[in-house]
Write a structure and sequence with these properties.
The chain is mainly β. The chain is built from five helices and 33 strands.
Amino acid sequence: MCEDEHRGDHGSDHSSGHGSDHGVGRRALFVTGAAAALTLGSVSFPSQAADAADADADASETRTVRGTLPTGAPDFVYLPVEVPSGVREIKVAYTYERPAVPAGTAGNALDIGIFDQHGTELGGRGFRGWSGGARTEFFIRADDATPGYIPGPVREGTWHIALGPYTVAPQGLAYEVTVTLTYGEPGEAVRPVYPPSRAKGRGRAWYRGDCHLHSWYSDGRRTPAEIAALARAAGLDFINTSDHNTHSAHAHWADQAGPHPDGELLILLGEEVTTRNGHVVALGTEPGTFVDWRYRARDNRFGRYARRIRQAGGLVVPAHPHATCIGCNWKFGFGEADAVEVWNGAYGPDDEVSLADWDGMLVASVREGREGRESSEGRGGRDWIPAMGNSDAHRDPDPVGTPQTVVLADELSRAAIQEGIRAGRSYVAESKAVSLSFSATGPKGEHAGIGGRLKVDGDDPVTVRLEVSGAPRCTVRLVTDQGVLHTSPALPVSGAGTVEWRTTAQYAAYVRAEVRHEVAAGPLPGALAAFTNPVFLGR
């Protein structure tokens, strides 16, 4: 894999005063093995300003840069800022024009973030924060920072404001960036405290979790405390933080862990790595782990960052793979996936497509005989990919825990929950009201549960059994590598029932269960209330 350095020629415009204009010069554009990028001319602050500020505490200076990006602009535009010594705080504000566009044409959308004196190298040490399009301004200082950004000293050197022109209108994207440096003694840096990796659980049990959630540390509108309260109300035992392209929230969850009247909540730390070719949840990484997102599928870089997630103790989970929003559809393939988010938020057509796509991958795994073999790609010994479901909740009225992944784990700890997800010992339910028990038994008492294998001969009789509660008037469908082979009558209004079906391993390589709501009209099945990972049949 090509490991290119990313250095661009600075444009000819250098700002030393208020109100500079930055055009897109030919010399400023560069394309490497990764995404195209653009480096503008530097914004300079005279070094003597720090000396002058010694006599005037909290003295500040401001520079403003204006420019226009054309359609077809690179994914990232870097604005260098020459930061002198003696700076206590850097503050950045930006605006951009949003002209009217014809129907069916994307308008302007401009994201923003910043890298410090360590530079903008992919996966490097320079990342100091990203807010996407969620904020119009941010600040960083030693003792505090805007949510989405990493507090710490503002060191002397070349910082880079990162602009991300997500979409550009036909008229171009006119922007204005204002940088303010405040001088003075830095505040005292705060030592981060992270939530523990283990909580008091129920021993080996089924634990409910939501692993795709957004707080106000990216584009969500809820605080960690609000999310934790909603998670407990939804009956969850664990959650995973997954703010877009930033790990800044990691140090703000510790006070939501620990003893609580409604039970301890295990808080896993992660990130939603939000690229231009799809999103992936880094699930349960080490505290403070940052995973870069500045690449596309054509750059052949994702494998490096999937390994980064696993090296940091996390799972690689492609999110909403068939979502229709710009840049949301997953285009990196599933060769690096530890699990896949089949159900995202309120069940809809894109989830139905994801479910069918995932089922096709199950069929491929049994066709190629890979579902029980050791994996060469570090997926914990399996080459079939388990499914998950998460809420992707951002703000009211988005419900936390709809859906939720229910995992059989030895204890309520990061390692045990991850092991259960990786092994596929899980099912997905729309709420805490829905519970499933799904298994297969052989003629001699052999038994296998969700994610397991029933080792029987091809012609041995197999009984598949699903027990359901909390799903009134729903229908159970049993799905195999051939398709839907059994559909039950509607469950009673109590929502509880048991469905049994008999088959053989030569007739069904695997069986999984779906619990569906009633169909309002038309040939399509009803929305899911729950579904399981498969039980594999045969030796």
